[in-house]
Amino acid sequence: MDVVDSNGTILAEGDSVTLIKDLKVKGTSTTLKRGKMIKNIKLTSNEEEVECRVDKVQMVLKTCFLKKA
Predict the structure, then answer these.
(1) N or C: at which end does the chain have fewer Cβ atoms within 10 angstroms?
(2) How large a percentage of the chain has pLDDT more than 90?
(3) Residues whose CB is less than 8 angstroms from the CB of residue 19 and which lie 6 or more positions away in sequence, other chains included
(4) Predicted confidence (pLDDT) per residue in 13-26, tens digit
(5) pLDDT tens for each residue of 23-43
(6) Where are the domains of the chain?
(7) Nearest to 52 by CA among 28, 22, 16
(8) Of the CATH numbers 3.40.50.2000, 3.30.360.10, 2.30.30.40, 2.40.30.10, which one belongs to the domain with range 17-68?
(9) How many of the other CB atoms lie within 10 Å of CB of 38?
(10) Secondary structure class of 9 (helix, strand, coil)
(11) Quick one: 4 exposed, middle or buried, by C-beta within 10 A (0-12, 13-18, 19+)?
């Protein structure tokens, strides 16, 4: 089970990734802007999702919107 980013690069625990698209966060009025660097990702049991902490908030992001930094 390999977790890959939007370009097909394999992601590992603790990698840094960059957003490739503006994303609205469900349940808030916050938007994560394209190009935002997210550090220290955690892999989940679902290979299409990673856990991360953005602005002190824990969230799950789809790997199709990420590229390895």
Answers:
(1) N
(2) 93
(3) 32, 33, 34, 35, 36, 38, 61, 65, 66
(4) 999 999 999 999 99
(5) 999 998 999 999 999 999 999
(6) 17-68
(7) 16
(8) 2.30.30.40
(9) 19
(10) coil
(11) middle
Pair of tokens at residue 3: 């977790």
Q: Cα separations (Å) of 13 from 22, 28, 55, 60?
A: 23, 27, 19, 14
Give yes or no for residue 1 having a pLDDT over 80: no
Q: Would you state the structure tokens that stand for residue 24, as one six-digit string?
A: 């609205």
Query: Residue 24 corresponds to which amino acid?
Result: K
Cα 52 off chain centre by: 7
